Amino acid sequence: MEVPCVRVALEHGEATRAALADADLIDDGYEIAVEDGRIYIPIADPDSASGILEDPEIVPRTVPERESQTMPADLLAFEPTYERLGRAALIDEDDPERARAIADAILESDLPVETVLNKASKVKGETRVRDWELLAGENTEVVHREYGCEFLLDLADVYFSPRLATERHRVAEQVTADEQAFDMFAGVGPFVVPFAKRGAECIGVDINPEAIEYLRENARRNGVADRVTAINDDVRTVATGYEDWADRIVMNLPHSAGEFLESAVTLAGDDCTIHYYDIQHEDDPFGPGERAIRAAAEPDYEITVETRHTVRSYAPHELNVCLDVRLER
To answer: PANTHER family, alphabetically (predicted)?
Structure first.
């Protein structure tokens, strides 16, 4: 079976392998192959390789399948549930003995994991952070990579969901270099940084001071600090200082985004796209958001709903959705 591989001269093979491994992009289901002085490294996400390597040569290649890895389930009598975030594994277990057994199995497996964290509370407070039990590792700070961007963050101080990587990439692909983009709830920069990497001038606002510090660090890490302004404040206070500024606005605060639509309209320029995130019942997941946007922006703007997109299932009969809405004055 052919799989996408990065092809590189043998003398550059180890440095390339290390860079791809550090970004968690190597497809562990296949062996690395060597032929005619070149090395073929199977990769899981060809698009992201371009953000890690300079002008990578990606070719289809038949390479041997790797012998089965030892996974946590192989060491337990059940299939554990966990999320990967960088070199951390996140679990959600109330039973201390079960949590300990899962953590030990994860560490003994072939997964590239150094830290295991168990959720110790629900998401809480204005900054939507939670408590964690550190079962393995030194602290709750992790490095996460997605689609060629690198994010440093501390899960105890900021909110971050790796499950939304595909959605963030969907939006980022719409961004062009001449845009002015405003993220009203920016967090550590998972929208702002890829927007800036595409050449947009970006402003990210968040009420959490720790998130803003990580946003500034992540802008530096990704070489876009000159195109990113990070502001620690309530966006409703900030908006009046950027009236008519934005060509694109991200409103990723499901359950509460509607409370900030007046500020979004203040920020919107003559032709502006808003990415409005909402959580609603499956019977009418898009209607409440569309009606709220129209109520806030009409008649000053002509409203066109360009995309009605389901991001994921949030809870039984509830959907996390996004409306891509164009406002033309």
So the answer is: TRNA (GUANINE(37)-N1)-METHYLTRANSFERASE, TRNA METHYLTRANSFERASE
